[in-house]
Amino acid sequence: MTEAALPAQLADIREDFLALEQPDRLQLLLEFSNELPELPERYRDHPDLFERVVECQSPVFIFVEVDAENTFHLYATAPRESPTTRGFASILVQGLDGLTPEQVLAVPDDYPQSIGLTQAVSPLRIRGMSALLARSKRQVRERTGL
């Protein structure tokens, strides 16, 4: 992973996970799942805007916004009974929010494998987080033409 491309908030999240033992990493992931922000009111009644991430075992939907200030925002929904999926979505929502589209696109694709959860959760779940990141990047490209 190229450290220069990793935004500070994603680097901090990774450091927090890597500082813990495996069982505690799962607890931190659960904490992230509880911190997944609610959708802004303007999007709550517009499920048509959201794309399902079919690679995730649980139903998770995302929507990317690049605002007038060229700032990236990721919105995600996932069921409360799916804490792993919610946790992964929350990590990306919190870790990518406020970046420029260029910074989002520069995030290494292997970020999900770098946070120390590959022994704690199944490869299928890690693949789901990788898909969340990939779809976010694709939506940024579609919205910005980058």
Automatic annotation (TrEMBL):
It holds the Pfam family SufE. Residues 15-138 form the Fe-S metabolism associated domain. It comes from the Bacteria. Belongs to the SufE family. PANTHER family: SUFE-LIKE PROTEIN 2, CHLOROPLASTIC, SULFUR ACCEPTOR PROTEIN CSDE. This is SufE family protein. It comes from Cryobacterium psychrophilum.
